[in-house]
Amino acid sequence: MNRIIILTTLCMILTTGIVHADDGAAKQEPSAQETASELTSRDYIIAGYMEKVSITIRGIEAPITMEAKLDSGADSSSMHAEDIVLDEDNDTVTFTVLDQQDRKQRVTCEYDRIVRIKKRPSGYQRRAVIPVVVTIGSKKLDAFINLADRSNFSSRMLIGRKELRRGILVDSSRRNLLSLPEGQ
Q1: Residue 45 and residue 138 in contact, taking contact as beta carbons nearer than 8 Å
Q2: What b/e string do you get for 67-106 counting C-beta neighbours within 10 Å, with b at 16 or more?
Q3: By CB count within 10 A, which of 48, 71, 97, 179 is most buried?
């Protein structure tokens, strides 16, 4: 009962003060620059803190399905990769990725940029950021994810705020609330 009250209140808060277009144009998927306050409650899906996601990377035939942690405390998204090799002359990165069934796949694709991630207690790590399409439930999002060795983490994939703010509410007490669309 408390969850229903919380979700109803959240939907009311999100829809307060929203300006609707008078031209009757069809609503498009929000861009990365749009904030949650510009979305209506109809644009949101409710996900658990752990969900199966589908990652489509340019250069591979089939999407990779894996379980991901939806983490509003993380700014960006990150995917576990092994044997990462950067070719900065050609702006490509080659890496090995594991799917949900621990099947390995070697991938070479273009990267968008290299980021420096602060490592504790000191120093920085360089990570390639690749463009992907992430499918979470009914949401299909163009996203950028960085590649990292996440073998010491509880999940191989982390979905951060940059993607979550595009219409995904996270119920931190639940997991696997959504299913992927057919064919994913």
Answers
A1: yes
A2: ebbbbeebebbbbbbeeeebeeeeebbbbebbeeeeeeee
A3: 97
Asked whether 37 and 22 are in contact (CB, 8 A), the reply is: no
Q: Which residue has the tokens 């609707």?
A: 20
DSSP structure string for 162-183: HHHTTTEEEETT------PPTT
Residue with tokens 């979905």, as numbered in its chain: 159
Q: Are 32 and 166 in contact (CB under 8 A)?
A: yes
Whether the link from the prior residue into 30 is cis, omega within 30° of 0, is no
- pLDDT exceeds cutoff 90 at 17: no
- Assign residue 38 a region (left: φ > 0; alpha: ψ between -120 and 50; beta: otherwise): alpha
Give the tens place of pLDDT for each residue, 129-175: 999 999 999 999 999 999 999 989 989 999 999 999 999 999 999 99
Sequence-separated (6 or more) residues with CB below 8 Å from residue 82? 95, 96, 97, 98, 104, 149, 151
